[in-house]
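Same chain as my last thread, 310 residues:
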Amino acid sequence: MKHAIMASQPAGMVPRLPDIFRRYQEHVVTNWGDAANRMRTSSALMRARHQNHARKTWPSQRGFDDRLLQIDESAEMAADDQPMTFEQAVQAAVELDAPLNERLAVIAAAVRRIDGNFADAVDRLVERLEKQGAGAAAPTPGDVMPPFLLPDDEGRLVGLADILLKGPAVITFQRGHWCPYCRLNAIGIVEVQQEIAALGGQIVAIMPERGKFARAMKSAVGASFPFLTDMDNGYALSLNLAIWIGAEMERLMGVAYDLPSYQGNSSWFLPIPATFIVGTDGVIMDRFVDPDYRRRMDIDDLIAALRRAR
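reply #2:
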């Protein structure tokens, strides 16, 4: 039987990525309300199919990202020889027992399989940002983290100084509730939030979205830490982290995502999804800044940096 996302298409027609993103949004709204309790069980079968296929195809642990790309492009990851839908690929990434960037690669591979043109546009965006040195001027280890005072998902003002009074902090920037990479990044942090708390660490996620969307993101991933709203990317701009996505990506993303509504402005600026580990003295211990939003600080590196910041 065809997967639902494929069955709704006219015969012989492959759905393009903006349509799939829009359906993914609908899937998220409908099905992720209790994600903290459900995300580890709802697609165990898809996880098993993915891992078993990976083992049979590539017994070696080397070159995992390339292996994921080849697996997805072969469209053999489902037991009935039908390609995964985008929703299934995202859930398989959630369920995968692997480092964060290997899980993110599952989503990136699915995007490229479903719509190579969109993936190529992302490659061009990343190439432009890398040539421009986007993020290079952001604060570095040894610098004092600039202060902020931002509203959380309940409307309360949260300041960096108050956070650091409680312990070293993980400050992570996410693009938005709509971004599957950001959702998975946040889920990866949620999975170790108790370990972080045991180390005395604090976690803060910062997004350029209005409060209701920050609340939706927090609820969807089951986070106990606050999601702060950085209106108009003001704080991200002060850190040299805010970027314009460009006319091409605005056109492609605008089909599925209403960023002006989410953010309360029509700038189509987003933060580079960076992560900073900050000691109680306010000094940055470590950071991850990459203009390619498909890559994030791995969770093991985050925990190791937090231990050094204690």
